[in-house]
């Protein structure tokens, strides 16, 4: 091992020393400063490790396995830096550094329980450092592979996943990890509150909760925009386990933020807020365990799932659960808040209803995310469909919108102002639905959302019992919901096949396929006409040699009314169109001068037992009035795949099995074309979508962030 590897041990020793000194400082105050300096030193060492890893990427230091696995010589500088957090080891080192910096900052503001805060901060930090020891990014290549001689440095690395080579992926993970790190502070405050029986600690840490919600939310929204911009499926949220892992603690963090507001005003929800601070932090750790330990690697599209040692995190979660439960039981008669007003629609009661809705939704998403584990314990592991999440997201969203609107009427406004605001909201909603499919639930939700926007304007509804921050954030929620409604229910999509030099018009867009630009990252070239504007565009479409996967990216033309979203589905070379055919079991298709039927698979069991499985596709081919049975197949020999082709009887034309899906019972065959067959032009299958007012989704997220950020800069958060 090298010196950089042992820096993790140095950081570990310094944090242990800090904890020991902090504990002893309860009796000897003069040791407290040494405890601080020891923790600061550990933070500096961890920061130095992060800088060293970044330099290793910048300088292409491929003797380090982590650098070799995630970078390459031709990678642009910006993405070489982003590659630092592209994998398990680097991202966790970044997270550890953020945790330590966050706790250092929190220590500067802590005045009453410094020794306890520093002790607990050190204990939490130790878990992160221990995990870095298990997953250290400074391992040499030759220590991990017997095929590399010691001291022999590779000339190039494996490169970075193309999906991660995007500006938004440069900033999305660090922002997300900053949000995860910030969740540590409310967790520590919750433990201090239980240890000292002092529950005002939770309200004094309100800004840290706000910062957690703001930063974690910003990371989620950045990831959503990246998905929309790069993945090509036209959406911004796919309910993937990795997405859910960040959404769940954000929802519980939102519940905690509103709970502390109630505690500050009414001295209620005391025990609830302590529990939520602990639960939010545990969910951050548990989400990391779920998505990065490998237990959900078969059910997530994210490439970093399923690598690394995460047993320590699981033990940490169990330890926190036991310790927190014990403390809560010990303080069961103390951590009790006051009872809220029994008025049904009092402002604080409405807030409690909203908290309950957020927590129910978080629990629902958590169960869906964990379903592969739950079903795996019962038998065959399986996941839930997107409809599972949507089925609860819609009613919960509807309920939250109603509650946000009711909040403004905790003090009754005049009937006149309500009617004016309602009429305006109804008129604007009707205008947006003119010429569009009418969805009653979506329409009602839009009317309510516009009602929230109008009532948040001070003066429309007198005596609004909300702070400026709440009005801004709630307005952002309303904009977000309107954007979701218009982009999902009022967008249109067209599926088109375009031959080379052919024009296809989907008013007001005309696309002409020019061809393919070959290169490291090949791209499909179109001539794009939009009204009177004409230009040449490219949509990346290439097979990454590192992962052997096909990558496609969309072209997006941003407009006020709608985004034009052009996403390639499949590019077909003329020769492939002439020689390749896809068939489902039992399907009969005419192809050139033959008729083909796929009858099923034939698996050579004996060869499979010997470790070299052979799979054949049984096909019936009708050629020149006669029927023949052919068995093109594939032999698997380790990582090598050998085609077991056959010939069309009476000819020299080859028939081979190119691809297959046993579960879906689909095959792709190659059949040599007749000698006289004319080569057709290249063609592309493309989706052309018009995403109506989708920019409201992005605007809503920005406004939500502004509203959440306001308490961080206001001197009095509750004004």
Describe how the helices and strands are arranged.
Layout: H1 3-24, H2 32-58, H3 65-70, H4 77-82, H5 88-109, H6 114-134, H7 141-144, H8 167-182, H9 184-196, H10 200-204, H11 206-231, H12 241-266, H13 270-292, H14 311-330, H15 347-378, H16 386-407, H17 415-433, H18 440-455, H19 468-489, E1 492-499, E2 503-506, E3 509-517, E4 523-530, E5 533-544, E6 549-552, E7 555-557, E8 562-572, H20 574-579, E9 580-584, E10 588-591, E11 594-604, H21 605-609, E12 614-623, E13 626-630, E14 633-637, E15 640-644, E16 646-647, E17 654-661, E18 666-671, E19 683-692, H22 695-713
Antiparallel strand pairs: 1-19, 2-3, 3-4, 4-5, 5-6, 7-8, 8-19, 9-18, 10-11, 11-12, 12-13, 12-14, 14-15, 16-17, 17-18
Question: How would you sum up this structure in a few lines?
Answer:
By secondary structure, the protein is of the alpha+beta class. It contains 22 helices and 19 strands.
How would you describe this protein?
Helix 19 runs antiparallel to helix 22. The longest helix is centred in the middle third of the chain and has 32 residues, at 347-378. The chain has 719 residues and is of the alpha+beta class. The chain is globular, with a radius of gyration of 30 Å. It folds into five domains: 1-165, no CATH class; 184-384, no CATH class; 411-490 and 696-719, no CATH class; 495-573 and 683-692, Tick-borne Encephalitis virus Glycoprotein, domain 1 (Sandwich), CATH 2.60.98; 576-671, no CATH class. The protein contains 22 helices and 19 strands. The strands form four sheets. Strands 10, 11, 12, 13, 14 and 15 form a six-stranded antiparallel β-sheet that branches. The mean pLDDT is 89. 53% of the residues lie in helices and 18% in strands.
């Amino acid at each position: 091992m090298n010196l950089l590897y042992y820096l993790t041990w140095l950081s570990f020793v310094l944090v242990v020393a800090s904890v020991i000194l902090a504990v002893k400082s309860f009796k000897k105050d003069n040791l407290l400063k040494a405890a601080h300096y020891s923790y600061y030193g550990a933070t500096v060492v961890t920061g130095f490790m992060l800088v060293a890893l970044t330099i290793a990427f910048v300088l292409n230091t491929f003797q380090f396995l982590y650098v070799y696995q995630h970078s390459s010589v031709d990678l642009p500088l910006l993405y070489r830096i982003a590659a630092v957090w592209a994998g398990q080891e680097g991202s966790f080192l970044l997270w550890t550094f953020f945790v330590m910096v966050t706790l250092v900052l929190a220590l500067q503001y802590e005045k009453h329980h410094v020794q306890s805060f520093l002790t607990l901060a050190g204990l939490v930090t130790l878990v992160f450092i221990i995990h870095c020891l298990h997953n250290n990014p400074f391992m040499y290549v030759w220590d991990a592979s017997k095929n590399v001689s010691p001291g022999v440095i590779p000339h190039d690395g494996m490169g970075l996943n193309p999906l991660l080579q995007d500006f938004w992926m440069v900033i999305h993970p660090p922002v997300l990890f900053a949000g995860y790190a910030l969740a540590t502070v409310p967790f520590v405050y919750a433990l201090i509150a239980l240890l000292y029986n002092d529950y005002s600690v939770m309200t004094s840490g309100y800004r840290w909760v706000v910062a957690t919600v703001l930063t974690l939310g910003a990371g989620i929204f950045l990831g959503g925009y990246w998905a929309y911009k790069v993945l090509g499926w036209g959406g911004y949220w796919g309910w993937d386990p990795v997405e859910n892992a960040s959404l769940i603690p954000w929802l519980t963090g939102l519940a905690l933020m509103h709970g502390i507001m109630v505690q500050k005003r009414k001295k209620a929800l005391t025990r609830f807020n302590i529990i939520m601070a602990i639960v939010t932090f545990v969910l951050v750790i548990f989400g990391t365990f779920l998505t990065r330990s490998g237990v959900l690697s078969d059910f997530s599209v994210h490439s970093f799932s399923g690598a690394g040692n995460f047993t320590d995190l699981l033990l940490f979660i169990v330890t926190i659960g036991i310790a927190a439960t014990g403390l809560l039981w010990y303080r069961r008669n103390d951590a009790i808040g006051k009872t809220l007003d029994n008025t049904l629609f009092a402002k604080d009661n409405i807030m409690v209803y909203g908290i309950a809705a957020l927590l129910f939704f978080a629990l629902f998403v958590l169960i869906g995310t964990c379903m592969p584990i739950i079903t795996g314990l019962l038998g065959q592991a399986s996941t839930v469909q997107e409809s599972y999440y949507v089925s609860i997201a819609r009613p919960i969203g509807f309920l939250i919108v109603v509650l946000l609107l009711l909040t403004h009427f905790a003090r009754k406004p005049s009937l006149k102002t309500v009617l004016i605001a309602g009429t305006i909201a109804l008129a604007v909603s009707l205008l947006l639905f003119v010429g569009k499919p009418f969805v009653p639930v979506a329409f009602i939700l839009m009317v309510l959302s516009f009602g929230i926007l109008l009532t948040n304007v001070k003066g429309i509804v007198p005596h609004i019992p909300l702070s400026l921050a709440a009005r801004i954030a709630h307005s952002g929620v309303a904009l977000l919901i309107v954007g979701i409604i218009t982009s999902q229910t009022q967008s249109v999509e067209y599926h088109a096949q375009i031959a080379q030099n052919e024009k296809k018009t989907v008013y007001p867009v005309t696309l002409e396929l020019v061809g393919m630009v070959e290169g490291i990252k090949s791209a499909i070239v179109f001539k794009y006409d939009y009204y009177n504007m004409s230009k040449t565009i490219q949509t990346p479409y290439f097979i990454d040699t590192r992962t052997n996967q096909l990558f496609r990216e969309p072209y997006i033309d941003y407009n006020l009314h709608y985004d034009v979203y052009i996403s390639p589905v499949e590019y077909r070379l003329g020769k492939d169109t002439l020689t390749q055919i896809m068939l489902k079991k039992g399907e009969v298709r005419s192809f050139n001068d033959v008729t083909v039927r796929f009858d099923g698979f034939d698996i050579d069991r004996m060869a499979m037992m010997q470790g070299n499985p052979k799979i054949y596709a049984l096909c019936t081919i009708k050629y020149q009035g006669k029927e023949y049975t052919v068995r093109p197949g594939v032999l698997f020999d380790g990582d090598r795949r050998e085609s077991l082709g056959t010939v069309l009887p009476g000819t020299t034309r080859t028939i081979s099995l190119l691809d297959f899906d046993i579960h879906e019972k689909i095959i792709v065959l190659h059949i040599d074309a007749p000698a006289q067959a004319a080569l057709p032009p290249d063609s592309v299958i493309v989706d052309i979508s018009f995403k109506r007012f989708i920019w409201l989704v992005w605007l809503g997220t920005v406004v939500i962030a502004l509203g959440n950020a306001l308490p961080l800069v206001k001197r009095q958060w509750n004004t």
